[in-house]
Structure formats: structure tokens, C-alpha cells
Amino acid sequence: MFATGIENSIPTIDHGKTRVDEMEVCGHYERWREDFDCVQEIGINYLRYGPPLYRTWLGPNKFDWEFTDITFAELKRRDITPIVDLCHFGVPDWIGDFQNPDFPRLFAHYCGEFAERFPWVQLYTPINEMFICAVFSAKYGWWNEQKKDDTSFVTALKHLVKANIMAMIEILKRRHDAIFIQSESSEYYHADSPAAIGRAEVLNQMRFLSLDLNYGRRVDSGMYEYLLDNGMTREEYNWFLEHRLKQHCILGNDYYMLNEHRVFADGHTVAAGEVFGYCEITRQYYNRYRVPVMHTETNLWEGPHGDEAVKWLWKEWANVLRLRNVGIPTVGFTWYSLTDQVDWDTALREKNGNVNPLGLFDLDRKIRNVGRAYKQLIADWRNVLPAQSVCLVVPIKKIGEHPDAVDEEDDAAGREFGARDSQVSKAQRD
Asked: Which of 10, 46, 129, 429 is 20 to 30 A away from residue 348, measured at CA?
């Protein structure tokens, strides 16, 4: 699945007084037809895309589907398969923030309503980057609740992951062959000195928390104590173990130059740049979870030479091919996002209007060098990979095949997906 995305981040800053809406500042609400033209110009068939949550979900059982109806009908007409991104770093004002214990139940209902309205949609990312959302909102104090303590972090994390799982349950009630592609950050912490090893080990356990809970995997003993010490009850923890839906999932992971960190003896961290790289870090995540992998986000600024992003694209693609060649089932790649972004140089903490040249197209919808390179990469590899693949065939139905009722064939496809995953995992363990 060659993909890109139209980012729908909507965090609040200034203690909830200011909303950051990437679709708005990037011009998508006015130029969405041009954006879909750009997707097709590259030759992309899969698009990470979703409704602007705060504009669509106006209250309990109150929705404004107008923009979503129009845009999703156009995606369907163009045969662009959406990977639907339903919650991207923020919630509507009436929810408050991720400290709200009602969020999981309310969000699951919203997702069920979406799946009911768009039965032809099969691929979902219910909540984008749960770990990063919890860290930036409740550990670093940057977004939404703007908290900076462990209890707030654990609260946000458990609510985000529970909401993600409950959303999957509601979507599966409407579409039994739905596939959930997590988009989660892939992190690694390097100890700067022997005195920093202990802290680095803790952080390297913590990076797995969102996916451990999401996939119903028992966390490491140190993390279990950490969760219970900071507000998670045994009953809440056991709920995650009892709701294991990984057989419906693809491990989508994101990798940027900032995903590896250097940890110092006093506990502070700085970006380490690319040390291990995407392939090695993804191997660590795959060995832990044993589900198919998709590279769901990467990008780099187009620098002064004009080829910096092109070289990064080639490097990330080489890492993806390496994963496939060593037998790790890898089913997709994503350059994120379609157009340039705004104010990510300050992690959306400030509204400065700074354009970040990260897209396949600039904000005038003119193709960048990396857009041309990605278009060529897709043309070169699209027909080669199926013949060379040792990985799973993901049971995705064409948009035109969407049934209103799921039949036995759908259920069999889902079972085959899980069975093949088990066979691959067993063979590699053996």
C-alpha cells in the first residue's frame, strides 16, 4: 500500500483557548478537490484521511457530516482507498481533554456512527499516535490538558488506548472485516554514559506502553508498577488484557529524524538523529508484537540543495525493503503528508504561520522534488513487489465491492488474515 496523508491534527493550546487545525491552515477545506487531484497525480491509491473531529462531532448524538459526506463520496468516486484517521491529537471543546473518563465511551459511539454511515470504508486508524498524544498533552504540557506529571500521563494514555479499543469493537460490529492500521511512533533511547543506562532502560520500556495495552500484551514488571503507582487500577489493567484485538491490526509505525533520543545521566534527553534507523527499530517492535508492519509516516524538510527529502525517501524505502527481505511482513509505506505543514517546527505549540516544506506538494499545490521521486518510486516498484513478496496478502476489498451486510466470505478473510499471521510468527520463532 503506497500511501500519503492529509493531516487533520486539531490539538488545543493556551489552556484550551486556541485550536490548531492543520486542515484549515493548509487550505484543505477550500482546496480539497485539488488535494485529491494531487493524490492521483502521484499514483497513490491509499490516503490517510479523516473528518475534522471537532467540526464533525458537535455533542452527544449530534453530528455535522456535510463536509465528510462530500469528501468521502469523492474519494469513493475516484477509487482512492481511505485509511480513516478519526482522532488526531485533539477532541472537541465539549469533551474537554484526554483526562475526561467519559472520552472512551463517547468516542466509541462516534466511531460506530461513522462506520454506520460509511459502510464501504474498511481501513481505520481510530486514534493517531496514542503515545505521542499522551506525552505531549500530559507529560510535556504542550497540548490539550497541558499537564506535566506521571499521573496525568497515565490517565491520558489509558483513556486514549481504551477509546481506541472500544472504537475498534464498535466498528467491527458494523464491518466484520475492518482492518485497523495503528499509526504509532517508533522510539529508541540511547544512553549517553553508564550513569544514564538506568533511565534509558525505563524510557525504552515506556515507549511500548500504548501498544502493549492496545494489543493486550502484559507490560514489563517495572511498567506495571509505574502504571499502578500513577492511577491505573488492577481492574483497568486487566480490561486491556481481556480485550485483545490484535488479529484485526496492522502495526503502523512512524519514523522521523527525531525518533531516536540521547539520554544523559541527569535524565534529560536530546534528539540523537538517525542512529539505528527505521529497519532496526521496527524489528524490535515486530519481535514484540508479531503483527504485519506498515511504515505509516515519515518526511524531511526540503533543504537548500533541494534533494534532502529525496535522499531521505530513498533511505526509508531501502529500510522497508530490508524488512521485507529478512521476512518481516511489511505491507505499506507512507510519505506524510501530501502538502507542506504549518508550525510543526514548534510541534504545534505556537500559531506562527510558519510553513514547513515537508510535503509532496507545497501549499500552492505545486509538486516538490520528493513528490516527483515518490511518483517514480511507485511506478518502478508497484508491479515488482507482489511477485517478490514473502509477506501476507492483506484481505482488502475494493471500494466497489462494499456490502451492506458482511457475509461468510468476509469472516473467512478475517480468519485467514489472523491464521496467516500466526503461521508466519510460528515459522519465524522456529
From this structure: 46
